[in-house]
Amino acid sequence: MHLFRFSLDDRNLFLISIGVFIAQIAFSSITPFLPSLLIELGLKSNISFWSSLIFSVQSVVFGIMAPVWGAISDRYGKKPMMARAGLGMGVVYFLLAASKNHIQLLLLRALNGALSGYIPASISLVASTSRPDRLNQNLGMVNTASAVGAITGPMIGGLTAKVFGMRGSLAFSGFLLIIAGSLPYVTRIKEPPRSQKAEGSIKDSIIETFKNRQLTLVFMTGLFTQAALMAILPTLNLVMRNIAPQNAEFYTGLVFSIIGVSTAIASPFIGRMTDIPLTSLYRWSLIGSSILTALQGLAASVTSLLILRFIFGFFNAAMTISGNVLIAKAGGSGSQGSSFGVYNGIMSIGLVFGSILGGIMGDRFGLAFSFFASTALFLAAYLISFLIKEPTEEEPGV
Q1: Are 99 and 41 in contact, with CB atoms under 8 Å apart?
Q2: Is the separation of the CB atoms in 205 and 211 below 8 Å?
């Protein structure tokens, strides 16, 4: 009953988490149905190729723009960035609903990537408004909201697509994003005064972020972990076709979503583990993720894979929360926008790199080697993590 103890400041946290939940529903509702949308638009060949391209282009453009938006948020605030991302993407989703062909869809997804950044802005706002003793717990709640939204999104997307069609589903997602973008101002979410540290140019802010050795080390681990998470994506459906050919699509969706379930369950508890050194929690999550991923590559049944993926979600929660707290504490109170912006840009690079690596390994050496490549990437992140120093309460991170 005392998992969350709300104070006046928790109103901020609750409202931001609601926004993240709504936005994540919109983000995750379209991705599983991209191939169907392409077919509806009249594409008759290379559907898998165009699905991958349209999925990837958003991440690539977001990776380029994320550091820029992060630096701007240090100057003008996180609330304007949440509104800009939510309202801007909401309009793009309405345009997606009106797209006529796959080329328009590709260009609009690129524009969506350029305007993205709602959740990074939300995380940096929570980090900048949290007391040091509540930072882990508060970021844990945001992570729970994101995970629950990611689970709910495909279900709502499927339901709205069935009732209103694919275009109606996209328009509904656009409506959700407009709600999320309006929420910071409609509900009067508080934001702390901006620091004078953010007075320099955007370019200087990004350069200064990379000069921070502790941040750079966390960025490197983030690159490897995101690549590791994505490395199994190209082959997972093929693995399911081998071990459960009759219901491959259903089990693929279940295997994906079950991580979200355990991540949502674990995040509040992970956020309260303040007695464990932050770097130790981070390292344990990385080595645990590595071991569990290797075991997934050896799984011979749907049941064993589901169990392993469920357990993996607990380590995923610890990895995400401890990584975000490390960035918040290493970045400093006046440059958290730049810190999280650069981090999310690097994560986007990891997303594309991991998907390509996993596909190559699976094609060349066998499907299990996508999992083994993921294992190696987690191990690389684990080794780098030993160079990260434990942050102190005196550091100006929050």
Answers
A1: yes
A2: no
What's the chain's Rg over C-alpha atoms? Answer: 20
Distance CA 210, CA 339 (A): 9
The b-or-e profile of 1-19 (16+ CB within 10 A means b, else e) is eeebeeeeeeebbbbbbbb
Q: Which helix (H) or strand (E) holds 291?
A: helix 278-298
What is the secondary structure of 370-385 as a DSSP string? HHHHHHHHHHHHHHHH
Residue 395 pLDDT > 60, yes or no? no
Q: Which domains does the chain have, with CATH numbers?
A: 9-194 (1.20.1250.20), 197-392 (1.20.1250.20)
> Which residue type does 26 have?
A
> In the predicted model, what is the mean pLDDT of residues 75-102?
93
Residue 154: predicted pLDDT: 82
Q: Are 146 and 66 contacting, i.e. CB atoms less than 8 angstroms apart?
A: no
Among candidate residues 70, 228, 259, the one with its CA nearest the CA of residue 154: 259
The residue written with tokens 């007391």 in the block is: 131
Whole-model pTM: value is: 0.84
Tokens 């630096």, located at residue: 71
- Measured CA to CA, the distance from residue 102 to residue 118 in angstroms comes to 26
Q: Do 286 and 229 touch, CB atoms closer than 8 A?
A: no
Q: How far apart are CA 143 and CA 23, in angstroms?
A: 13
pLDDT tens profile 355-380: 888 888 888 888 889 999 999 999 99
